[in-house]
Design goal:
The chain has 400 residues and is α/β, with parallel strands linked by helices. It is built from 12 helices and 13 strands. The protein binds S-adenosyl-L-homocysteine and iron/sulfur cluster (SF4).
């Protein structure tokens, strides 16, 4: 069945509704925008600039709220708190999987649910963040794809996810630690834009958020530790390389027009050749900075030896410095596919490795809490409104 918007998705750039308390959230704003806000509440331009610098440091380097900003004069703190909030996504639920993966069900101020996942490993910790509430694309194997797009997340809501993870993991730099403190030993080391949504259909929001995440006087995450995953929005890819300039992952998933048209309907608009040419043209790609092709293993759909050989041929034809990530299909209620058998996945992987291209099989993480790739959506929809309200009330009560 074709759902509206499946081939030529039009994102509805509906803005976030203003906060009910009339306050402005500072996170997600540029320095210039913060200064403007400070002038609006009566600070002289020079003061505003100075306070902006302080606020930036406190918010993004310390993770502080107004009442914790001891370096800022008390009168100013009170004035700021009257007009602004720093701003964090609201946590509706926080689940921890038996393998250590965490999933948060979050809510925007105007009441939309979205999710974020943290995946700890021995040598790194990866935060998987969302760029939209829902998705306009309807990849047939993806649970998020069965949701309507509600709206783009704004930069504050995207950066807010990273801030929230740092809060939970208690990873703000200790007093005296510099901005670009050593990532070694930290739990949150990497970010992937692989949660809900198609990041390149929220181009400006994602770009502005990543600029803040990378800012040296703030969160200071290196671009090498950030990966953006796209289902293949070809016209935005070059610009993404130039303006966002992070690692690229492409959800390829099939090597023939017939199959890709079916499972990634966007392929009917931007075909495989166009997509691979855009990968070849992606700025800054080289052997040290490869493109990752994501490939979900669907039983009897895209998992034959012939598919694997064609994948190798295509990567060679376009001379792509590439690696392949094989993702065992994560089931969800009503999904029209099954996961390939472990033996089939192993054979597929070996064939590609045998041709000198890295093709590891990704271990599914957090399946027990529906946190694995493509499973995001369920928590929000399974719970009734009343249940969510009750959880929110409990949270409020717990906060005292
Ligand atoms: N919308 C972007 C990024 C988010 S999805 C994109 O599509 O690239 C992150 C990855 O999970 C994508 O490669 C996506 O195709 C894959 N995925 C979606 N549903 C899945 C499922 N049920 N099982 C395994 N992987 C899935
Ligand atoms: Fe959207 Fe990505 Fe899911 Fe496709 S796989 S429906 S682009 S979130």
């Amino acid at each position: 069945m074709d759902r509206p918007g499946s081939v030529d998705p039009v994102t509805v750039p509906r803005d976030a509704a203003p906060r009910a308390d009339g306050k402005i959230a500072l996170i997600g704003l540029t320095r210039a925008e913060i200064s403007q806000e400070l002038e609006r509440i009566g600070l002289a331009p020079k003061q505003a600039k100075l306070r902006t610098k302080q606020l930036w440091h406190q918010i993004y380097h310390r993770g502080a709220d107004f009442d914790e900003m001891s370096e800022v004069a008390k009168a100013h703190r009170a004035l700021f708190a009257e007009h602004f909030v720093v701003g964090r996504p609201n946590i509706m639920e926080h689940l921890v999987s038996e393998d250590g993966t965490r999933k948060w069900l979050l809510q925007t101020e105007d009441g939309h649910d979205y999710e974020m996942v943290f995946i700890p490993d021995a040598d790194r910790g990866t935060l998987c963040i969302s760029s939209q509430v829902g998705c306009t694309l309807n990849c047939r194997f993806c649970h998020t794809g069965t949701m309507r797009l509600v709206r783009n997340l704004n930069p504050g809501e995207i950066v807010g996810q990273v801030m929230l993870a740092r809060d939970t993991l208690d990873e703000w730099p200790k007093p005296g630690e510099s901005s670009n403190y050593d990532p070694h030993g930290r739990m949150l080391t990497n970010i992937v834009l692989m949660g809900m949504g198609e990041p390149l259909y929220n181009f400006d929001g994602v770009r502005d958020a990543m600029n803040i995440v990378r800012d040296k006087e703030g969160l200071s995450l290196s671009r090498r530790r950030i990966t953006l995953s796209t289902s293949g929005v070809v016209p935005a890819m070059k610009r993404a390389g130039e303006e966002i300039n992070v690692n690229l992952a492409v959800s390829l998933h099939a090597v023939t027009k017939e199959v890709r048209d079916e499972i990634v309907p966007l392929n009917r608009k931007y075909g495989i050749d166009e997509l691979l040419q855009a990968c070849a043209d992606y700025p800054g790609t080289n052997n040290a900075r490869r493109i990752t092709f994501e490939y979900v293993m669907l039983k009897d759909v895209n998992d034959s030896d012939e598919d694997a050989r064609e994948l190798v041929r295509l990567i060679r034809q376009y001379k792509l410095p590439a690696k392949v990530n094989l993702i065992p299909f994560n089931p969800w209620p009503g999904a029209p596919y099954e996961c390939s058998s472990p033996e089939r996945i192993e054979a597929f992987s070996s064939l590609i490795f045998g041709e000198g291209i890295s093709a590891p099989v990704r271990t599914p993480r957090g399946r027990d809490i529906m946190a694995a790739c493509g499973q995001l959506k369920s928590a929000a929809e399974k719970k009734s409104r009343a249940e969510l309200d009750r959880l929110a009330e409990e949270k409020q009560a717990a906060l005292g």
